Amino acid sequence: MTGPQGEPVFLHLGPPPEEPGQFVVEGAPESYPPDVKARLEVDAKEIIGRYPNGRSALLPLLHLVQSEDSYLTPAGLEFCGEQLGLTGAEVAAVASFYTMYRRGPTGDYLVGVCTNTLCAVMGGDAIFESLKEHLGIDNDQTTEDGKVTLQHVECNAACDYAPVVMVNWEFFDNQTPDSARELVDGLRSGKPPRPTRGAELCPFRQTERILAGFPDQRPDDGQGGAGAATLAGLRVAQERDMQAPPTGDGE
Ligand code: FES
Predict the structure, then answer these.
(1) For every residue of the chain, which 3-state class applies, written as one string?
(2) Is residue 11 pLDDT above 70, yes or no?
(3) Is 195 within the bounds of a domain?
């Protein structure tokens, strides 16, 4: 490319130099041993069989290999491509788009602190700073005991319970710096607290297997679903006999 005077202009393509490597972590496996590959192939076949078009299985397959390695490794990406007949570039393009796919080793518990607008103003930023100091780690780092990976996350669609912390994608609502510190202490001591909503916690790799579509064996006693804060608007609308305005097509 040339500039206004015809001089050559260097365009740096790809990620900025300061951005963490794209799925490149020192020591990450480049391929799976035959026994691991054979085991994963059985699972992959089951997953792919659920879809009319095999390549639609890429997202759950990425969770499957993440359940093996705790993050996406060259071995995992290559495995997904092989199973679906996709190129490495096609797999990486999808994997790098979604933030639930991890680019570095993950501890038993992925603790995500929402620092998006509403949670931030309600105390999310303070919680995140407090946890960084308490755990002695920064964003996207893991404690030395391998128990907790800390990450700031964007809105988890639970703004009515702000500030929200998620552990392995289960909700801990209305947190404070004190309650969040207690939470991570419980995780590290082997006594994971019960989420405010949703099923009891299981380790990250097991969570990933559930996200790949394998059965969730955790007891379901109806603890999920909408809570009082979510239903507040509906309650007010019912009390005031409010109706949605008619749509233009007369329905
Ligand atoms: S802003 Fe935190 S859940 Fe929406």
Answers:
(1) CECCCCCECCCCCCCCCCCCCCCCCCCCCCCCCHHHHHHHHHHHHHHHCCCCCHHHHHHHHHHHHHHHHCCCCHHHHHHHHHHHCCCHHHHHHHHCCCCCCCCCCCCCEEEEEECCHHHHHHHHHHHHHHHHHHHCCCCCEECCCCCEEEEEECCCCCHHHCCCEEECCEEECCCCHHHHHHHHHHHHCCCCCCCCECCCCCCHHHHHHHHCCCCCCCCCCCCCCCCHHHHHHHHHHHHCCCCCCCCCCCC
(2) no
(3) yes
